[in-house]
């Protein structure tokens, strides 16, 4: 088991480095820079070039990328904001609790609604309940989070005046943002749960349990549900990453000071170094969540245990 965990941790390293290189490359080739955003009508071309030299923006792509990778890998330093002159890592970490709160809240809502709804659709396959659940799941998967956020604000804040349209002071301020972030997760979990339950229902051990005369409720909770949950762990982890990324725009809709607002503000002023840091931190959190899901799967799924236990026995036998 330890080898499995170490293998997954080592696989995170090239993934994160690949994200660093990709993000840096995309931003470097993007038109414009922070100097152009900071310049005024009175700024001369000579002053702009001097500022670029001071910020190190006049160096070649390879030199800038190598310097950035060296700082990230050896010093774990995301650099200093070109506009605010503050530490990027500290700025992102200070804002991350709000972003993670939206993602975790959305994932919790998706699990509470999506898994029972998918199980209900599978148990009533071909009936009206299955059609309604599948339609709702398709709507959730197809609906962008920012559009759902705007519709929720219009309906529940502007017309019904039930929930506030912005802020994060109390729990009631988080109802609309978390629900807007959860729609995609509800749709995905509903569809995946339906597929998993239908696959397990056809299994031989379920048929045997029914043949022995076990009540349908016991068959459901002792055999079908536990064996259907394993694929859902990975889906839930992927949903968390999706909600974390989709929540960036939702934060702006509800004026929540999270990583989304930080990225949008710095894109506006073309502080691409700060944007790089925010995207890299988001990728690191996403990879960590997927790692935790893989570790949880390793403890739950007996096939993973058996495979690694068999590898250890073969190595001892060969020795």
What topology does this entry show?
Layout: H1 2-29, H2 34-38, H3 45-55, H4 61-75, H5 88-123, H6 128-142, H7 145-159, H8 175-201, H9 204-211, H10 216-253, H11 259-268, H12 272-300, H13 302-318
Helix pairs in contact: 1-12, 5-6, 5-8, 5-10, 6-8, 7-8, 7-10, 8-10, 9-10, 10-11, 10-12, 11-12, 12-13
Task: Tell me the strand percentage band.
Answer: under 5%
Q: Main sheet, how many strands, which sense, barrel?
A: none
Stretches where pLDDT is under 50 for at least 5 consecutive residues are: none
The value of Rg in angstroms is: 24 Å
Average pLDDT metric: 80
| Count of helical regions | 13
Alpha carbon gap, first and last residue:
20 Å
Series of H and E elements: HHHHHHHHHHHHH
Helix content: over 70%
CATH topology of one domain: MetI-like fold
The CATH superfamily name of one domain is MetI-like
Which structural class should the secondary elements be placed in? Answer: mainly alpha
Please state the second-level CATH architecture of one domain: Orthogonal Bundle
Task: Choose one word for the global shape.
Answer: globular
What does this structure look like?
The structure is a single chain. By secondary structure, the protein is mostly helical. The chain has a domain at 91-257: MetI-like (MetI-like fold), CATH 1.10.3720. It is built from 13 helices and no strands. It has helices spanning 2-29, 34-38, 45-55, 61-75, 88-123, 128-142, 145-159, 175-201, 204-211, 216-253, 259-268, 272-300, 302-318. Helix 8 (175-201) runs antiparallel to helix 10. It starts with a helix and ends with a helix. The model has no long low-confidence stretch (mean pLDDT 80).
